[in-house]
Amino acid sequence: MTCKSNLNRTRRSSMAGLSHAQIVVVMILILGLASVIFSQESLANRAVMGEIRAVSNVKVDGQLSEWRGFSQININSAAQCISGANRWKGSADLSGRIMLAYSASHLYIAGEIRDDKLINDQKGILMWNGDCVQVFIDTDLDGDYDTTVYNADDFSFGISPGTDGKAPEWTIWQPAGKQIGTILGTSLGLVRTSEGYNFELAIPLEHIGLRPTPGKSFGMGIILIDSDEPGVVKSQLANVPANAWRDPTLFAKVTFR
After folding, report:
1. How many CB atoms lie within 10 A of CB 64?
2. Overall domain count for the chain
3. Residues 99 and 72: beta-carbon distance below 8 Å
4. 24 and 118, same structural domain?
């Protein structure tokens, strides 16, 4: 009891020797340290999509022969069905494999999508009501790891094959107010296949504020949407939780190598 009592008196006397302003500064430093520790733990606990490798050039035409040997993100199981699980009929109905790369100027996203019926008569920001791929990107993963709403460094892109692959297009939903025309240099290549469609999307790094640095990570998520009749979503598969479309903290982690 004597030792504990002496320790408490020492703590009180130490704090008593500080001014109110100094105590405030100490508390701010403690909170800052806790924030850094929480940030590191949060990043460590995120789902991992893997590494993204550099390339010198990609021809954005929807032909995927140049992507041989790249790591793949597979979205093809019942466990990844975030909507319409009772209507999903297997990998031939809807599934995909996604590959990533970057150059000095662009982020490249390639996909081989299996979908037995290509139906999407919705245009622009309404394309989510038909067959499409949604791509989510958080370019400042370290800076806003605990921000659960979109801000200026969180992006949401859409890729639609159109009905039967005849009218492919891309769009952007987030950040709000970011018009397609302002993402200069973005291009889409998409081709119809016997099992669905292949695509390549090139996004200028400059216009999304992403700076490739080996070891640096950014957030990302992919949702595949299936529609077998105009304007009706049948099922969705994803490599992230269902609410990722509105919560960037649910994005997975991608690391530049």
Report:
1. 19
2. 2
3. yes
4. no
